[in-house]
Amino acid sequence: MSLTAANFPEKEIETGPAATGEREPGSPGRSRRYPVARFVGRRLAAGLATLLVASALIFVATDALPGNVAQVVLGRYATPSRLETLQARLDLNQPLVVRYVHWLGNAVTGNLGEDAVELANGEGNAQVSHMISTPLRNSAILALLTAILLIPLSLIAGAAAAVRARRPADYVLSYSSLVVGSLPEFVVGTFLIAVFFSWLNLLPPVALVPPGASPLSNAKALVLPVLALLAVSLAFSARQVRAGVVEALRQEYVTMARLGGIRERKVLVRYALRNALAPSVQTFAQSIQYLFGGIIVVESLFGYPGIGQQLVQAVSERDFTLIQGITLVLAALYIAINIAADLVVAFLVPKLRTSLI
């Protein structure tokens, strides 16, 4: 028997993704292997890019202030020799780009530069990072206490209004929150001082905290600042939670749960409120960001020794190095809160987690 081509069937030619080594649609690949890590990496990269842009804007804006900064800081003591020494110490003789790169490189290592006013006064320790550490801690305590009260109160008030939608209790909460939320912080704070100090004489109008001491050592000093921040933040957050719960209560799965005989309280907590948490996370993040903005007004009103009061003082003294350091730290906090909120939402929403896989 002769061996011919007819005795051996030809090998079937492979075509398509298998032949070229390409990945078929729907099959797992290297680029889809770590979706959560890639998502976190993208958010961190976007946050760093945003912080870089913010740092450039902060530096350019403070540099654009009119007048010679060294001369303004020195005032009547601005002799030619002292001017030259301070300008050299602050790198004011260098081009703008060189000064920005030098400042940003130091900021990455935690060095926010030297304070212009302290240098003009001949202080030995003029590091901005050292000067803002205690006020930043005090502001963080104030914001943390407000946030601890804000989240559960917003959930309770919003859910209570949602289950009583279009009833007197809902109208009272909605309109009162609308009125309080539209008031500036200094108006709310002044009203609280009038009530709790002038009329009732229960709480001090000024948050007296000894230098270097923790605000927690004088609990009464924290009550009015926390209430002022909480009133405005709660008015906004409770309304957003109410809207989310009302929308969740209209969904089919809530109706099916009720038809299944599940108790109304369990339906509210397990189904409606749980699914309303995802959009509420962004609301809470915005409220916490607002706390750092509202702190500036509240701290100035109550004389609280925090980062907001220090920023106001730095602006009044044209202390541009201190302004740069404080605003950069606040910008970093804003961005970090946004990233944390996005990660929490991705964890809470099953559909979003599925889209990452």
Q: How would you briefly describe this protein structure?
A:
The protein has helices spanning 17-20, 35-63, 69-74, 80-89, 96-108, 116-120, 128-163, 168-181, 185-199, 220-249, 252-259, 264-302, 307-316, 320-348, 350-356.
Structure notes:
The protein folds into two domains: about 40-120, no CATH class; about 130-355, MetI-like (MetI-like fold), CATH 1.10.3720. The protein has 15 helices and no strands. The chain has about 350 residues and is mostly helical. About 70% of the residues lie in helices and about 0% in strands.
Write the layout of secondary structure elements.
Elements: H1 17-20, H2 35-63, H3 69-74, H4 80-89, H5 96-108, H6 116-120, H7 128-163, H8 168-181, H9 185-199, H10 220-249, H11 252-259, H12 264-302, H13 307-316, H14 320-348, H15 350-356
CATH structural fold name of the largest domain: MetI-like fold
Strand content: under 5%
Mean pLDDT: 79
- Portion in helices: over 70%
Radius of gyration: 29 Å
Distance between the termini: 58 Å
The CATH architecture of the largest domain would be: Orthogonal Bundle
Tell me the number of structural domains: 2
What is the structural class? mainly alpha
User: How many helical stretches?
Assistant: 15
CATH class of the largest domain: Mainly Alpha
User: How many distinct beta strands?
Assistant: 0
CA-based shape: globular
Low-confidence stretches: 1-31
**Biggest sheet, in brief?**
none
H/E element sequence: HHHHHHHHHHHHHHH
CATH level 4 superfamily of the largest domain: MetI-like
